[in-house]
Specification:
single chain, alpha/beta, Rossmann fold, five-stranded parallel sheet, two-stranded antiparallel ribbon, 12 helices, 7 strands, 42% helix, globular, binds thiamine diphosphate, binds magnesium ion
Length: 353
């Protein structure tokens, strides 16, 4: 295809990618993303709040010794998964790494089953044997939950390959982090995805840190939306704290992939408020840095403000949503803690031997 024709086919990016390091999540684009309808704003608010409250509860339960092993919270990044999910349809697939509770809830997986898995109970999605990083739901098209950094990228590419092979019009959303973006298997996947025009959206959740290492310290090219350049995979940066921007980019790009044009990269500029995992000394960033993002760019508070300013709902209506969410989370925690642990005989099931 001629270069000019290829260029003309690319959708217009919402956020500008200037190829330079951005020290904060403040978007450089002055353009406002398209507004959401009342129903969409309320949906986004409730979904993001569910993830936030669920994660806060998981953090508490970890502190009480009810959750063991690794546990990576998604607090701060909620707009990414909720905005992406608003743009996909039945049968589209989702795969991600270990920071996966938000993705599972956004996919519609049962909070009871997720919490029961976190607490290692028989009623969990992996019968209590997988824990935080290893949960799946064929029914909801959620393919994990992967503890090896970037391992989900070739798997997601494979899911997209299967879609192509079966000639269905499904798209696979493959999420990974800024740290994972430096792994070699990502680029092997990019090559094949472009070569075979696979329907995969690569969503890089750039929360600015890989464990305690900032992006600037570990990456030669910090504009991760350009990481597909040598494979001719288009990409763009998106304000990942604004669910409207995420949804708008997602709609264009999912459609791009669905129509057979091949892979696309969305770099989500986002931020995690909590430590990498539950045992993070947090010495690599200041409290002021965290507070500034939380105070000025919190994805949930921004939606809450818009809802009230635009008269979509009153404070009281929002309190009702908050109550509903709290009840769902409490119910999930009660269900989990009242569920039995797996029988010892389960050690010998669901394994290769
Ligand atoms: C192959 C591999 N190397 C190292 C690790 C240890 N490790 C776990 S998470 C992580 C950081 C990844 O950061 P990023 O991709 O930015 O994702 P985030 O945790 O920020 O969501 C590392 C190095 C691992 N799990 N797998
Ligand atoms: Mg990261």
């Amino acid at each position: 295809m001629a270069k000019a024709a290829r260029k003309a086919e690319k959708p217009t990016p919402v956020a500008v990618s200037a190829g330079r390091t951005r020290p904060t999540v403040v978007p450089t684009s002055k353009d406002h993303p398209p507004e959401l309808s009342r129903e969409e704003e309320l949906h986004a608010f409730e979904q993001m709040l569910l993830i936030r409250r669920f994660e806060e509860r998981a953090g508490q339960m970890y502190g009480m010794g009810l959750i063991g092993g690794f546990c990576h919270l998604y607090i701060g990044q909620e707009a990414v998964v909720v905005g992406m999910q608003m743009a996909i349809g039945d049968g589209d697939q989702v795969i991600t790494g270990y920071r996966d509770h938000g993705h599972m809830l956004a996919c519609g997986m049962d909070p009871r089953g997720v919490m029961a898995e976190l607490t290692g109970r028989r009623t969990g999605y992996s019968h209590g044997k997988g824990g935080s990083m290893h949960m799946f739901s064929r029914e909801k098209n959620f393919f994990g939950g992967h503890g090896i950094v970037a391992a989900q990228v070739p798997l997601g590419t494979g899911l997209a390959f299967a879609n192509r092979y079966r000639k269905n019009d499904r798209v696979c959303l493959t999420y990974f982090g800024d740290g994972a973006a430096n792994q070699g298997q990502v680029y092997e996947s990019f090559n094949m995805a472009k070569l075979w025009k696979l329907p995969v959206v690569y969503i890089i959740e750039n929360n600015r840190y890989a464990m305690g290492t900032s992006l600037n310290r570990a990456s030669a090219q910090t504009d991760l939306s350009r990481r597909g350049a040598s494979f001719d995979i288009p990409g763009e940066q998106v304000d990942g704290m604004d669910v409207r921007a995420v949804r708008a980019a997602a709609e264009r790009v999912v459609e791009w992939c669905r129509s057979g044009k091949g892979p696309y990269i969305l770099e989500m500029l986002t931020y995690r408020y909590r430590g990498h995992s539950m045992s993070d000394p947090a010495k690599y960033r200041t409290r002021e840095e965290v507070n500034k993002v939380r105070d000025e760019h919190d994805p949930i508070e921004m939606v809450r403000k818009r809802i009230v300013d635009r008269g979509f709902a009153s404070d009281d209506d929002l309190k009702q949503i908050e109550k509903r969410v709290r009840e769902v989370v409490t119910d999930a925690a009660d269900f989990a803690t009242n569920s039995p642990e797996p029988d010892a005989a389960e050690l010998w099931t669901d394994i290769y031997r």
